[in-house]
Prior knowledge:
4 copies of one chain form a homotetramer.
Chain A: E1 5-10, H1 15-25, E2 30-37, H2 46-49, H3 60-63, E3 67-69, E4 78-81, H4 85-97, E5 101-104, H5 120-123, H6 129-137, E6 142-145, H7 149-164, E7 167-176, H8 188-191, H9 202-213, E8 216-218, E9 221-223, E10 228-235, E11 242-250, H10 256-264, H11 269-272, E12 283-285, H12 294-297, E13 306-314, E14 318-325, H13 329-345
Parallel strand pairs in A: 1-2, 1-4, 2-3, 4-5, 5-6, 7-10, 12-13
Antiparallel strand pairs in A: 7-11, 8-9, 11-14, 13-14
Helix pairs in contact in A: 1-13, 7-9, 7-13
Amino acid sequence: xxxxxxxxxxxxxxxxxxxxxxxxxxxxxxxxxxxxxxxxxxxxxxxxxxxxxxxxxxxxxxxxxxxxxxxxxxxxxxxxxxxxxxxxxxxxxxxxxxxxxxxxxxxxxxxxxxxxxxxxxxxxxxxxxxxxxxxxxxxxxxxxxxxxxxxxxxxxxxxxxxxxxxxxxxxxxxxxxxxxxxxxxxxxxxxxxxxxxxxxxxxxxxxxxxxxxxxxxxxxxxxxxxxxxxxxxxxxxxxxxxxxxxxxxxxxxxxxxxxxxxxxxxxxxxxxxxxxxxxxxxxxxxxxxxxxxxxxxxxxxxxxxxxxxxxxxxxxxxxxxxxxxxxxxxxxxxxxxxxxxxxxxxxxxx
Amino acid sequence: xxxxxxxxxxxxxxxxxxxxxxxxxxxxxxxxxxxxxxxxxxxxxxxxxxxxxxxxxxxxxxxxxxxxxxxxxxxxxxxxxxxxxxxxxxxxxxxxxxxxxxxxxxxxxxxxxxxxxxxxxxxxxxxxxxxxxxxxxxxxxxxxxxxxxxxxxxxxxxxxxxxxxxxxxxxxxxxxxxxxxxxxxxxxxxxxxxxxxxxxxxxxxxxxxxxxxxxxxxxxxxxxxxxxxxxxxxxxxxxxxxxxxxxxxxxxxxxxxxxxxxxxxxxxxxxxxxxxxxxxxxxxxxxxxxxxxxxxxxxxxxxxxxxxxxxxxxxxxxxxxxxxxxxxxxxxxxxxxxxxxxxxxxxxxx
Amino acid sequence: xxxxxxxxxxxxxxxxxxxxxxxxxxxxxxxxxxxxxxxxxxxxxxxxxxxxxxxxxxxxxxxxxxxxxxxxxxxxxxxxxxxxxxxxxxxxxxxxxxxxxxxxxxxxxxxxxxxxxxxxxxxxxxxxxxxxxxxxxxxxxxxxxxxxxxxxxxxxxxxxxxxxxxxxxxxxxxxxxxxxxxxxxxxxxxxxxxxxxxxxxxxxxxxxxxxxxxxxxxxxxxxxxxxxxxxxxxxxxxxxxxxxxxxxxxxxxxxxxxxxxxxxxxxxxxxxxxxxxxxxxxxxxxxxxxxxxxxxxxxxxxxxxxxxxxxxxxxxxxxxxxxxxxxxxxxxxxxxxxxxxxxxxxxxxx
Amino acid sequence: xxxxxxxxxxxxxxxxxxxxxxxxxxxxxxxxxxxxxxxxxxxxxxxxxxxxxxxxxxxxxxxxxxxxxxxxxxxxxxxxxxxxxxxxxxxxxxxxxxxxxxxxxxxxxxxxxxxxxxxxxxxxxxxxxxxxxxxxxxxxxxxxxxxxxxxxxxxxxxxxxxxxxxxxxxxxxxxxxxxxxxxxxxxxxxxxxxxxxxxxxxxxxxxxxxxxxxxxxxxxxxxxxxxxxxxxxxxxxxxxxxxxxxxxxxxxxxxxxxxxxxxxxxxxxxxxxxxxxxxxxxxxxxxxxxxxxxxxxxxxxxxxxxxxxxxxxxxxxxxxxxxxxxxxxxxxxxxxxxxxxxxxxxxxxx
Lengths: 350, 350, 350, 350
């Protein structure tokens, strides 16, 4: 790759923004050009405005960038958004209108009928919606979203099963990590020696986003998948990695062996195209009776692989298993990055 | 109570044994007379043999008792068993044969058709089985068991609903505390910043014990309840308190209001009889959207109340809610103690 | 006590404010009359304005009180202040000027030469300063402060040793609990699987406050004690309880036995007067080689006792030991309450 | 490196043993040939005998090796020992007698006057003792030890200061990680929401080992350094990384700037020789007021760098700072490996 494509990061000082910056620092196709954040940070050097939260050191490229305010003009056409939902809505539209290609991790536009909600292994064909989006909205740029972190893990595990058999019902209970709430997020006093069986808005997202993603693009719209989802969402004291206990009904009641084989052999477009952020195996099937475990498996495939284990019969719905994935990588910054990589290869980063 | 009934504790040095000793130290009807433990501890003073794990200080009554070996003759007719399952089976039978009244927290005899598996608020009438047990087994004593900790919490929440409406299906995912695994139990290296989606044998117990408990005593046997249960069991980094995410189907699809009212107004025999260990309300219904929480609610009713919250519709099974109870009190030592109190009032401690 | 003295709590919605309210709810001498908090909460009912953080339920007396804004006129003459330092300074002066008797947990006035910095077991005689304070400042009320949480634990352990032998040097390293930082305080992402060797301003307080407290009142001023202190302060993932590793030099190099006996037999004015919040033993000496431990010992004496253990020789300074106390009780709300109780008995609550 | 030197690991199934295996799997000079463990594991395949605890997957090279019993004949001359102290003593001597070159992480022989206790950055010249060891003991092999984990971190930070100025007194309080206790090690019930101010034997090691390491080899013996050390050792709930609060007296009272510069510019033989496991900087000086932190800094230099921060005056001893290092890498397996690398370059692996 002779020349890397410059990119901006919106919400650059937050936790997901830092993951974007970290991914861009070592990306073969994209590079960091601008950082954008709220007025509190604007005008300061990134290294002064940002409390760096990741284990690695803050990348050199970012240190001396001056933080631009939200809405500031940007040279980079490619934009990754880690904005909080309350400001993402308007800001992202404004940038799309000005011709920027916005890859957003925010929730604001995910359920907009003209905005692709995409996981490249699951519904790459939804990118077709971008043409409709631009036409109808009159934007020279566009907005592509990736799902909520818990939905990203679930839909990756469901995708090959839906394709092979058809999903009918899914009951899921999550054990979600602290980083899913951003920084400072959950107070240590609320979570030490505790579990909280509630995450604001999470169950609604988890019960709706997979239906859009597993739906079909037809004539300028997504026809959602027609199965039913039910979610219990819990916060527990883990740093990263959402663990999900899934019970489901598949059409035709396939055998455990058939299900296991479908999951294990799952490959999709990002693997065929060898996209830089794509894991070799989007799903890793574990045989051990006590895996996947949050700490041991969240970093599989650089945080982009979803681990599935304990595949066994469910006396009520037919099948149960445990799925686990990184909420910060597969469920956030890595997901957006993979979307951009896919559209680049497809010639749609223009 | 002029004279307190002497009691022995089997498995006295373990965590559940310590809870038994703590409860007996302040009990109005029973008092601690003997402590029994494995050969490693036998012959030593209790305070030397036991690494005391509870927040309170070791009770004076226990300190200077000499630990008896398993199977040693006991003066106390009343026996509480906190033995591990691998030794509980034979040892408890031997004591029952010798005329002791064994209240066991161990799993060994729970599913024996002649052994009551009892939670006094749920199935006090199963005590009738004791007459059959003694007759058939030819024992002068008897064995009464209380359920596995996760089953104790679940069945308490289900009991009033089963009675009022009839339970048809129950899907439950648990977030279980470390103390459920005993001491030393779970290594800190296994659980810090982690969740483990597997607890050996737990799902099988949770899928079967409630059916026996919600069954009917008829002609010397328990006819199990005829609904279906499915469980996912997880270990998380909390000290005490099992949190359970429950989805269920009730007959006749009652309203959320009707369900809430049935749970809230639930009272049973232990409350009518004002048994010493009985909580005023066996079930506490929380209105807050983020309760019950493990740390905040596990000690309700001295650990004997089960807290229920987030009662809401489930798109698959009809209803969902979150239940929480103390695994060490309602789910272990307190449950056994309440069984003994019930049988005392019923004149069956003889 | 026929009639209880009404009291107001400043900063009532924060964590320390909640401890004040909890203590007042069951106090034999004082009762809660008003709650005062920042503008954000003012005008709302306490139960709506406050996210209750303690394990117990919110007291009935507090639920329906309307939160008054900072500076609002108060009927209660007795005022407990849990204000953050940045607003405590002016607000507490204003209330003292208006005739209120302010018992403050804030840091603002602790080192004011005319304000007693008091722990009743340590320096009850510093109350004499109040006469000077009122005269010089011209206030009809007054301000009494209690020390920083880590200093409260340390000074309680040092007091009997200073009195018996004279302290010359103290090197202390703390392992401090999360609740010391208030709520929401420390982000869970900052402290899970981590220790932070820095707490803003803490070392300076811990190196100066004990000198004032162990000093002498003479002619309207406190002559500070003349020894030297050095502190390392660390934050760790515990809920409550500051553990302090102390090395010290005492005059005359007394034996370990003499030191142990002085600590064990320590009683002071609050014990003689049997003040309601006073622990029977202000210091509890542990013999076990691995005690005190944070979780096991922080609630000794209802959180008002300081536990000391591992008393042993230090090859550099002479003696070393480990001290532990509750930062929320002995180190915050309980400390203020005990000050007010002492002054009541002394006839100074007028 | 054309041919890699085969090595055996003693105590291969434990936590430190697993780190040895992990390091050997990717080592440019050494390779894994045999695994040795207790009788319980002997005869089984490594992957069946070992519960793998590290985040990475078990290396392919190890999976199918058959575990040999302690004392079994070994082809590999190079031996890494992660044995527990109670069996290390005899076993390591036996292997040295048979001609093996034993690099031991166990405590048994560290204070033997003829056994080098080595950290290559600190006292590489102590390797001279090996000739004396072989001669006096009559062994064809030898034993080299690395220090206790907390001593390894401390001595690395002290070494350049001792060399530049001379250390006179060191008071250290540690906050040590769970992995230092091995696996299963510390029970989760003992450490959740707790700190334990005691680690068996640790303070004695920390107060003696640095004196041997900072001593001088002369005429077949080590003359220990002549300063005094005092230690408080605490266990806290972190996975890896020992944090140490250090106060010290240096000769000549050098300035903070001089001390900082000496630490920052420290390089030693492993860096000059570019040994494979050596970090580029053995000491990393942090400028931030709240660093080093356990989680953020323990993996610096692949766990082989010691981070030092908060260098400031100590009113008692002169200087204080905070040091942090990985107990599993710099303090255990990595330390042994670096010793072997050094001796290889020196031509002493023969």
